[in-house]
UniProtKB/TrEMBL annotation:
PROSITE patterns: ENOYL_COA_HYDRATASE
One GO BP: fatty acid beta-oxidation
PANTHER family documented for this protein: ENOYL-COA DELTA ISOMERASE 1, MITOCHONDRIAL, ENOYL-COA HYDRATASE-RELATED
Pfam families assigned to the protein according to its UniProt record, in alphabetical order: ECH_1
InterPro entries: ClpP/crotonase-like_dom_sf, Enoyl-CoA_hyd/isom_CS, Enoyl-CoA_hydra/iso
Taxonomic source organism: Vombatus ursinus (Common wombat)
Full protein name: Enoyl-CoA delta isomerase 1, mitochondrial
A Gene Ontology molecular function term of the record: delta(3)-delta(2)-enoyl-CoA isomerase activity
Family to which the UniProt record says this protein belongs: Belongs to the enoyl-CoA hydratase/isomerase family.
E.C. designation(s): 5.3.3.8
Domain of life, source organism: Eukaryota
Known function: Key enzyme of fatty acid beta-oxidation. Able to isomerize both 3-cis (3Z) and 3-trans (3E) double bonds into the 2-trans (2E) form in a range of enoyl-CoA species, with a preference for (3Z)-enoyl-CoAs over (3E)-enoyl-CoAs. The catalytic efficiency of this enzyme is not affected by the fatty acyl chain length.
GO-annotated cellular components: mitochondrial matrix
Keywords: Acetylation, Fatty acid metabolism, Isomerase, Lipid metabolism, Mitochondrion, Transit peptide
Length: 312
C-alpha cells in the first residue's frame, strides 16, 4: 500500500503536463526504489501485468514498473500497412494516456524481422485517396513516436529496412540483435523512391550529415556491427539478450526525473517535428503526386516482382 502511494506520487509528478517537481531528492529515491525491483528479464509478475491487443499490435504493460512492451504482429514480414499503422496509433494513445506508463519497448512478434517497412501494396495500384490516407497514417505514427513523452526503446530483433528503420530512428535508444543476416537502413532509393525530408532529418539528427548523404543516396542497409559503427544503433547484443537489455537500459533512463527528460527531449526534437507539422498537408500532396507517377508505380511493381522471385 505504501509503495503504491509512493509510485502514484512519483508518476503524478513525472507525467505529461504536470507541475514543477516538489522534491527532486524524494522523486529520485522513490523512482530508484521502484526501479531496483525491475526484473532483468521479461518475466513480469502476473499481478502487475495488463496486456491488451488488437489484430496487429500486442501490448503488455508492466504496471508496477511503468513499462510497456509493444510488439508488431503483421505476418509474414511486419510490413507497416494502413491497418497496422492505424492500430498502432490507437494503442499508442492508450499508453500515452496511461499515467502509469513511463516507457515503451518497441519490438516485433516475428522472429528475424523487426519490420519490412511500409507496406508496398499500400503504395501500389491504389487511388489518390488511399495514398493520402496511408501517408497521413505514416506521418502520425512517426510524430507520435518521435515526440512521445514516454521513453521509447527500439528492441530491433530482426531486419529493419526503410519504414522499419524510421520507427527505430524515432525511438530514444536502439538495441539491435547481433546477427549479420539482419540489416537496417533507409533503402528507399533501391526501390526507385525517395525518403521524404523528415525521414532524412531524423537520420541526419542521428548519424550526421555526411553519413546520411552516403547512406541515403546509396540506399545502404547496414548489418548490426556497421550500424553500430555509424551510430545508427546504440548497442548490439546477442539475439536472446535483446529484450532483457532493453529492460535494463529502460531502468537507467527511468531514473531520470520525467519532467526534466521530457523537456530536454522536446528541446532536442521539436524543431524537427515542427518542420513536418508546418507542412503536413503539402507533404501528403507531395507523396500522393510522387507515388502516383507511372514511372514510380512501375518501379514499385518491379521491386515487388523482385521480392517474390528472388532466391531465398
Ligand atoms: C524531393 C523529394 C521528392 C519526393 C518525395 C516524396 C514523397 C516520398 C515518396 C515515397 C516515400 C516512401 C517511403 C517508403 C518507405 C518504405 O518503407 S518502402 C518499403 C521498403 N522495404 C523493403 O525494401 C523491404 C523489402 N522486403 C525485404 O527485404 C524482405 O522481405 C525481408 C528482408 C523484410 C524479409 O525477407 P524474407 O523473410 O525472405 O521474406 P520475403 O522476402 O519472402 O517476403 C515475404 C512476403 O512479404 C512480401 N513483402 C516483403 N516486404 C514487403 C513490404 N515492405 N511490403 C509489402 N510486402 C512485402 C514479399 O513480397 C513476400 O510476398 P509473397 O512472395 O509471400 O507474396
Amino acid at each position: 500500500m505504501a509503495l503504491r502511494a509512493v509510485s502514484a506520487l512519483t508518476w503524478g509528478l513525472g507525467g505529461p503536463g504536470v507541475g514543477p517537481l516538489r522534491s527532486g531528492t524524494f522523486l529520485r529515491c522513490a523512482t530508484q526504489h521502484r526501479l531496483e525491483k525491475m526484473p532483468s528479464s521479461i518475466g513480469f509478475p502476473e499481478a502487475s501485468r495488463r496486456p491488451f491487443s488488437s489484430h496487429r499490435i500486442l501490448v503488455d504493460v508492466d504496471q508496477s514498473h511503468g513499462v510497456a512492451t509493444m510488439k508488431l504482429k503483421n505476418p509474414p514480414v511486419n510490413s507497416l500497412s494502413l491497418e497496422l499503422l492505424t492500430e498502432f496509433v490507437i494503442s499508442w494513445e492508450k499508453l500515452e494516456n496511461d499515467k502509469s506508463c513511463r516507457g515503451v519497448i518497441l519490438t516485433s512478434n516475428s522472429p528475424k524481422i523487426f519490420s519490412a517497412g511500409l507496406d508496398i501494396t499500400d503504395m501500389y495500384g491504389k487511388n489518390a485517396a488511399h495514398y493520402a490516407e496511408f501517408w497521413k497514417a505514416v506521418q502520425e505514427v512517426w510524430l507520435k513516436l518521435y515526440t512521445s513523452n514516454m521513453v521509447v526503446i527500439a528492441a530491433i530483433n530482426g531486419s529493419s529496412p526503410a519504414g522499419g528503420c524510421l520507427m527505430s530512428l524515432a525511438s530514444d535508444y536502439r538495441i539491435m540483435a547481433d546477427n549479420p543476416k539482419y540489416t537496417i537502413g533507409l533503402n528507399e532509393t533501391l526501390l526507385g523512391i525517395v525518403a521524404p525530408f523528415w525521414f532524412k532529418d531524423n537520420l541526419v539528427n542521428t548519424i550526421g550529415n555526411r553519413a546520411s548523404e552516403h547512406a541515403l543516396q546509396r540506399g545502404l542497409l547496414f548489418p548490426p556491427a556497421d550500424a553500430l559503427k555509424i551510430g545508427l544503433v546504440d548497442q548490439i547484443v546477442p539475439e536472446d539478450k535483446v529484450q532483457s537489455t532493453a529492460l535494463s537500459v529502460m531502468s537507467e533512463w527511468l531514473k531520470i526525473p520525467d519532467h526534466a527528460r521530457q523537456l530536454t527531449k522536446t528541446m532536442m526534437r521539436k524543431p524537427t517535428a515542427d518542420r513536418l507539422l508546418k507542412q503536413r498537408e503539402a507533404d501528403i500532396q507531395n507523396f500522393v503526386s510522387f507515388i502516383s507517377k507511372d514511372s514510380i508505380q512501375k518501379s514499385l511493381h518491379m521491386y515487388l516482382k523482385f521480392l517474390k522471385e528472388r532466391e531465398k
